[in-house]
Specification:
Elements: H1 21-33, H2 44-53, H3 57-66, H4 70-82, H5 86-98, H6 106-118, H7 128-135
Length: about 150
């Protein structure tokens, strides 16, 4: 995985039925290969996923580094995901895809700055998943602005 030449998976892309996981693993693979570029593994979005799964970022990174293929990584994370009820996963996915910065927070300032650089006309974009997809040249449907 070379994130200096391509993008990680979208936040929306699911692995074992959960969003963000494939993207986080892609970033871990790039970090292990020394090709993470401007991306950050174990960023706040990854930490949120790790907290939900009761998984440690360093532990996953060690597995990524030692795995001989993607199946080994998938097999490692599967029990963490499957320990959750389907309803918990559905709620996590739904909430995570809508998650945006808190009003008035420093994160909101960063979000708005990034949005103005990536897609200044897209004031309907209020969630990190949408902003990241726009930044990585993925289509994002227009929504009614909040």
């Amino acid at each position: 995985m070379d994130l200096t030449k391509s993008y990680p998976a979208s936040v929306r892309e699911q692995m074992h039925g959960i969003v963000q996981l494939k993207r986080t693993i892609d970033k871990g693979k790039a970090l292990a290969a020394g090709t993470i570029g401007d991306y950050n593994y174990d960023c706040p979005m990854d930490k949120h996923l790790f907290a939900f799964l009761d998984l440690d970022g360093d532990t996953l990174l060690d597995v990524i580094k030692s795995a001989s293929n993607d199946s080994e990584i998938s097999e490692f994370v599967a029990p963490y995901v499957h320990a959750k009820e389907d309803s918990e996963i559905e709620a996590f996915n739904r909430d995570w895809l809508k998650y945006g910065p808190d009003k008035g927070s420093p994160q909101e300032g960063y979000f708005l700055k990034m949005r103005s650089e990536v897609a200044p006309d897209r004031t309907d974009v209020t969630a990190w998943a949408d902003l990241l997809d726009l930044d990585e040249k993925r289509p994002v449907p227009h929504r009614v602005a909040a």
